[in-house]
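ingest -> validate -> predict -> emit
validate: passed (alphabet ok, no gaps, 369 aa)
predict: started
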Amino acid sequence: MIYLDYQATTPVAPEVAAAMRPWTEEKFANPHSPSTWGREAAAAIEVARGQVQAAIGLGGGKFAFTSGATEAINWALKGTLERSNRARLVTIATEHAAVLDSVEWLEAQGVEVVRLPVYGDGLVDLDGAAAAIDEGTALVAAMLVNNEIGVIQPIAELARLAHAKGALMMCDAVQGFGRMALPDGPDLIAVSGHKIHGPKGVGGLWMRDGCEPAPLLHGGGQEQGLRSGTLSTALCVGLGEAARLAVERREADTEHVAKLHELALATLGEGWMINGSTDQRYRGNLNLRRFGLDGARLISDLRNIAFSLGSACASGSGRPSHVLRALALSDREARSSIRLGFGRYTGEDELVLACRRIADAARAQHRLP
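emit:
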């Protein structure tokens, strides 16, 4: 199997697995217990918290562990609107389902929601954003790196527009955290462990001081009085170690991914078009289309290569990607698109082999009656 689905999830780093192991075996105590073992587990979580905050790199604020980015995003959106005396939320049409489904729920509760369109390159219209964000806006929500097409949105500029009107700004940084420096400006930042070679089932929400949303989960207030539930020491330690490694290896990972990006394009050859901006993008996400291609059939034909049609959260729906539709692509063009994701542990030789097989299988589709 050649794995090219890094936007769906990443391989767990060996260092992360090793760091987690003691906390899943002999050091199993509840970190909220006053026992010696419990205090040791709690101390390990605080070390991990510091590692994540250092990787976020914005200084100050507080970080709360969650079960993943979906929980963090739901908390940020719903909790902020609950605490605000405003009832307007501005987001982008190409956001992840965790945002779009949450704002749809908020809309049903009476919140006014504005979904900003994007240009053909996937980037938001800042003039349109400026017109939409007004004194009644409570929150602006935007993704740093799009999970389907890899484009990088102007988060700092959107944050400035939000703050100028007294609104807060929430950034879904899942696909950018650990891979690039996070822009200053957001008041709330959601991150995930399994997108940076950490474990699944853990993520978190960074909150600028004074911008904490109302709790989403109630019970014991174990996490700084803001989030209830017993923390998994192993998962928190895993996220912390993954964040530490990401900072340590960021430059090397960036260079490696850029090289793989060019290698993939050269190997695939002519006839492929990149979906989204070719400049403002994370190079480890290559979303491509080819005229007449049946992307789903391609995946079926190449079962020994893991790649996708887009978001794993929307797989199997049978509907064209909402992100590609927002780029004004037709249903046919959307269905002729595939996403290749690669990163730290992708080898050059295996990428070349996979791209050759993908190119051959794509050409074969045209030869079939």
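The domain at 14-245 is CATH 3.40.640.10 (Aspartate Aminotransferase; domain 2).
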